[in-house]
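Progress against Task 2.4 (sequence-to-structure conversion) is shown through the following example record, which the project officer requested during the mid-term review.
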Amino acid sequence: MNFFRSGKIELLKHNCVLSHALNTPSIKALVGKKVVLASNSPRRKEILRTFGLEPEIVPSTFEETLSHTDFEDVHEYPVATASHKAVEVYERLVRENPDDAPDLVIGADTVVLTHPSPGVSSSPFQGPFIRQDILEKPDDKEDNLRMLLDLNGSVCEVVTGVSLVYTVLEAPGYKIKSIEERTLVYFADNEKQLLEAYVNSEEGLDRAGGFAVQGLGGVLIRKVDGDYHNVVGFPAASFFKFLEVLNEEETDFLEL
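Structure tokens generated for the chain above:
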């Protein structure tokens, strides 16, 4: 993208758009805007950077204490968590420096569910509906092995909620727009010794579901049905399509 005008460099106070970003209307709308990622996840940062965005990093302090059981549809849980994260960061930055408020805050939350929901593309799940449970980070190696044995030779569902908070004139001064992305992860029928070796690597101890598809955990996976980046932690394709929709349909999107 060309940030030069009349042979002079245009200096921007804020700019998250990198030179290799695709020259689309929604990306051009981000030039010169203060865009913030409400997460310190290196994986989300790297995914966005791959596609030409480098937002400022301001991790949310929202305590993820929402109860899974409060949601009739468990897929609403990561969306709600992402919204709380984004709003917390937006409101905090406005309080700290109202003259340099963010134009856009991106919040995200990824969860791993024990099995696919009926209706998900290519889902092998049949029979009566059984409520999906959220797989948290394992407590220890023993818990990690238990998780992987349960997932072994089976399918889990990864869901990421993404919420965008942007400035508007109407109270409370911002709008929230959200999406969710669902991806199926098929585990190979792995030998127990391979699962134990992976657990001993300790890679999965800090990951929801107890595995990292982009790391050593990839050897356990037979197939990914859907957005691979969603499993890593951020659904890039859906996010950029969402930006295009908001830029086309929301008259107040990034206009202040």
